Amino acid sequence: MLISCLIIASGCNRDEKKVAQPSVTAKKTDISAPFRFHKLVEVSPGEDYDVLSWGRGSNSVGAFLILHSDSSGKKYTTTTGDLDGSIVDVYNSDMDLDGNPEILIQAKATDTANYATIYAFEFNNSKANKLDFPKLTSSQRKGYRGNDNFYIREGKFMREFPIYDGNGKDAKPTAAKRVLEYGLRGNNFTVKQLSKDSTDSKNTAKTVAKESATTPVSQKSETTSQRKSKKHTTRKKQTKKKKHRRHKNNDDDNN
What is the distance in angstroms between the CA of the first residue and the CA of the last residue of the chain? Predict the structure, then answer.
């Protein structure tokens, strides 16, 4: 009985030790060189897109790969291109609702003028059609200093970024954000600005304020008083002329 009790006790201790051990979390597999980025986009069952970036010897330039796997149709295609910067994220949408998925690669460039670069492709069966993503216009670029946030909302490709006031290192972020909505029509992007921009109205207000500041109040009052005095002087002259004419007519009548 003593031996059986010891066996049972040792079994209980083993179970307690097993319970006390912490759970081991699965580690994410590291990407081996020359690859730097990888994301799997599952469009539909059996249709996958593996997006990768690769390159040796530089972190700012390289190339991207889009590996399209159509396991149901037994078709496998590769799309590649030069990459400026590093990939931040990959998005999938069907903006024109034609059943052909679009793969959009967001890359982060090194300069602030083109802080965000988008590489866009529309896939029709095995063919990849490159789409030209529109650059920011002069009005959309006002106060732009990067920090773009891209996302998909209701099938549209959304872009928002904070607006800065000033130039260079002295530029300071404002509370305003510019929001743009991108769509697709006939393999061409459409752009709609959803945010109400106040940059132009601010500039106009600043100009008006400067002009009013350069004109002193005393000058304004003097100009007004001068106008009044001129009108008063003109009226006096006209009254004197009328009186002079009346006196002359009376003298003529008396003669």
Answer: 166
